[in-house]
Amino acid sequence: MIHFLIDGWSKHICQDLIWSCYEIGLRLGTPFLIDSVGAEIAADQVVVGYRGPAAVGGVESNRYLSLPVALSDPVEEMPCGHREVSGRSLWIPRETSEPDVISGVLHLLRFFHESQIGDHERDDLSRIPPTRHPLAQAGFFIEPLLDNNVEYLRARLSQWGMDIPPPCPWGKRGEYAVCLTHDVDGPRLHTLFALARSAIYALRGDRFERESAELGLLSWLMRRPDPYWNFAHWQSLEHGLGIASTYFFHPGRVPGIRRHPRDPRYETGSPPFTRVLLELRGSGCEIGLHNPINGHSLAAYQSAKEKLEKCSAGEVSGCRGHYWAINWKDPLASWRGMQQAGFSYDASMSPMALGLRQGTLFPTTPSGHWQALDNGDRFTVFPTAVMDSYTVPRAAGTDHHFIDQAMDRLLKSVIQRRGILVLDWHVRALSNVGAWQGYLVPLLKMLKTLMEDSQCRFLTLEQARTHWSRYAKDLCVGIMA
Ligand SMILES: [Zn+2]
Q1: Domain contains 470
Q2: Both 247 and 376 in a single domain?
Q3: What is the count of structural domains for the chain?
Q4: 222 CA → ligand 1 middle, Å
Q5: Do residue 120 and residue 146 come from a single domain?
Q6: DSSP 3-state of 163
Q7: I want to staple 198 with a disulfide (CB 3.0 to 4.6 A). Which of 213, 214, 264, 460 is the partner?
Q8: Residue 472 C-alpha to ligand 1 middle, in angstroms?
Q9: Ligand 1 geometric centre to CA of 176 (Å)
Q10: Cα of 292 to ligand 1 centre, how many Å?
Q11: What is the pLDDT of residues 151-197, one digit of tens each?
């Protein structure tokens, strides 16, 4: 067992440091205890110390690893960046000789790496275009920087004989988790709006949308099935592979939520949707909320959740923002609101390109910032590293070679660290025609690789959350604050 000692800090910083050690402990994968009060420590205990300016007394343990401390108060003023240390890319405070991995982890957890991005660099939904993101600009979108800080600590511990094998959060040793998810945006082409939309793009010269418009009109006139209505096809594909996925549905009209022009147009309470919601639930899939763009207040979270639960006759425990549009100037505030509304997790953390927005291949627990981590009621955030359009060269604005390399590196890292890979494929993308031509092949390629690997474990996001939560409970022996 490891004993994290973080005494001598003001209360304000202490809570965040406990959170940072908690995330590190879970990634190390060995039982740990976090102590911020400086309780008595037995001489034979492994102690990892990150002691503040007001810490008093020495540490008796003869296995005491004192970590370098670069942190000052307030935390916000500590600039961090990337540095190569012993062959690893770490995210640590600049201008320090020894790497302060605890501060580096906290910096990423608190999104300080994004705090310098001004309004003029963000889009109209406060999102950061991927080319503007500091991690992308440094060439580290694919690199698990936060997890690398933990690997550095693992290596330090191993130097004095404490060998800790990689973590085992998903069941059997060696397993990594994959969650297939579907955002339900525009799942019908046979509507006046969808046909007109495709036709307008076609008139502007988009040959893929022209195909959509022609196919939509033709299949509608010939009374053929709607090419974008693919729920049954997804189900048969996934049943065949023995996996269940998570669907994020827009709630439709909700009193108090102003519809944004880019929100999906369907009404979740109407018959084809209520029918499909029940079918999906019946087949073991999970239903989550696809938050409307203007639906990011506590009241909006509550009423949208309530409506979708009513329409789908079951609990909705997770969500993901449509257009990833949570409040990216203060994501912790968005997550706190989601937790207050009764959600257990969010899957909106995407850098809007292939990659890792916070440098981690594991879930994070942002509620560590605002509440005690040992009270059981935690809120989890899943990184979504891969979305359909990021794997299609014409949509991602890059080439096949770059995409293949990035996907390869992501998968290798997930396997090596035993992390989690969240894939997001829109329901309509399975049609693989018109505007969505080429969207299916990258997923099929990926699924083929994963199916051949016995260490891959497919889970719905809620199942992954349950695993992660149990794992955390087993590993975190106690927090003395
Ligand atoms: Zn969406």
Answers
A1: yes
A2: yes
A3: 2
A4: 29
A5: yes
A6: coil
A7: 213
A8: 30
A9: 26
A10: 8
A11: 999 999 999 889 999 999 998 888 999 999 999 999 999 999 999 99
